[in-house]
Structure formats: C-alpha cells, structure tokens
Known about the structure:
Layout: E1 15-21, H1 32-43, E2 48-50, E3 71-72, H2 77-89, E4 92-100, E5 107-114, E6 120-125, E7 131-132, E8 135-136, E9 158-160, H3 170-177, E10 182-184, H4 194-208, E11 211-214, E12 230-233, E13 239-243, E14 247-253, H5 254-262, H6 272-286
Parallel strand pairs: 1-2, 2-4, 3-4, 9-10, 10-11
Antiparallel strand pairs: 1-14, 4-5, 5-6, 7-8, 11-12, 12-13
Amino acid sequence: MTGKMMTGASDVADRLRIALITEVFHDDPEGRRLDARLAEAKTGGAELAVLPELPLDPWAPASREPSEDDAELPDGPRQRRQAAAARKADIAVLGGAIIRDPVSGRRHNTVILFDASGQAVASYRKLHLPEETGFWETHHYEPGTETPAVIRALPLSIGIQICSDVNRPEGSHQLAALGAEAIFAPRATPRDSYARWRLVLRANAITSGLYVVSVNRTGPERGVPIGGPSLVVAPDGSIVLETEDPVGLATLERSAVAEARREYPGYLPVRADLYAAGWAQAAKETS
Length: 287
C-alpha cells in the first residue's frame, strides 16, 4: 500500500474542510479522547482530521533503544484503533504508526489515510530520518524507498510528507508537478526551532503553489522539548491557521491553488526532464 493510492471519493468538489488535531493519544488506550476530538472536528464541518506524527505512540526516538512494542504489523492495534475512530465519527483521518514489514522485518514510520468508513486508502513512509539527541530515528525505523504519490481519495488531490521530509523540497515540487493541491506533513519538532520550520513550510507552499498543512505533537516528551504550533499555509505563503489548540479548523480552496499557479512563481515551467537528468548524474556520482 505504501506510496500507492486506492480509488475513493472523486475530487470534483472545490474545497476541503480539515481539522488539525494537535494532540497525541498513546495514553488513551480505549480511544475516548480520540473519539471526542474527531467528533468535535466533525461537528465543525471537517471532512478530514489530521493527526501529528506517530499519534498513538510515545515519542520513541527520545532514546536510542528501540522496543518491540513501538512497532506493529500491518493492520495492527494502533491502525485498527484509528480506523475504528474514523468510522465512528464518519470522518477521514490522516494518522499513522511504526509498521513492521511481515516479510523483511523492517520498520517504517508510516502515515496512513483512513476514509470515513475506516478503510485504509493510502499510505506513505518517511524518507528522511534525523539522527541527533531526542530524535534518534534511524535506531527505530528505516527510511522509505518510494517517492510520494498523489492521492485522489478526497475532494482535493493531496500528497503526504512526514516532518523532516519537508526540508528536502524536491518532494513538494514533485507532488505539485503531479497535480497535488495540498501537502499534509505531520511532524514532531522542538519549540525553539519553530521559526525555521515555519519558514520552510511557507517556502514550500509558495514554490510549489499548493497548501501545506503541518500538525505538530503536543509538547515535551521523555525529555525532548517538542512543541510549537500546527499550521496551514496557503499557496501564496500566507498563514491560514496557526494554532496550538487541540482542534483547529480550516478550509482549503481549489481556487487559491489555481490562482497561485497563474501568478509568479507558479507559472514558471517545470523542467522535469532537465532536473531528472541532473539528479541521475548526481546519483551516479554519489553511488
């Protein structure tokens, strides 16, 4: 399922109402808080609720030591809990888990899109893994090996990245060139670096001509100073929503994407063949 899209609702509508859920639920084993937040999002008119990076896990990369409990097989308990919550609230949910491949045993930080019936319709594996104090991610999972795909299971076409992936803007530009109108990037980032993340997310929105939505984990965990707002950036780089509330609501408009792509820099040609040749040469020289 990783990097691929299954058919779902058409993308004929002109807008997508979303809820940013700035909260984690590893201490919510029966799912009552998650159910309540999704119900609040649904009441606010949201069609999609976006959760932070690894929303049902404690922040495992605080330590270099991985645990078997941190990861699960496909359709594991964290995934089933998110699917059930989506189905109960009748809302699509962008969640995730550390998923262990049943054949290779490899673990991946994986975002999963569940539709309003609880069906997993798309997934994406994190490509770029930090390795520093509080973020010992290479000790817990391996980088993905597939580029992000456009998902057409919601009213707007979307792409997914995870946290550090946004600091390699090639992925954003590729998704825009393939037709994405919004990128969703769950994250877990320190409060004192928020200004830099905000700058990068705004730049990605402007240079890609699409919405960028990023939901952060709530606060410090296991000695790691995680924190700072979740936000929605419009295709022109303006801030639609910037919040640390548990539930924040915003509406993404297809017309804003179209306008950004008519204006500078959106109308500039995408020289995909030229850059592909350059990247092929770079890969050859660094292999």
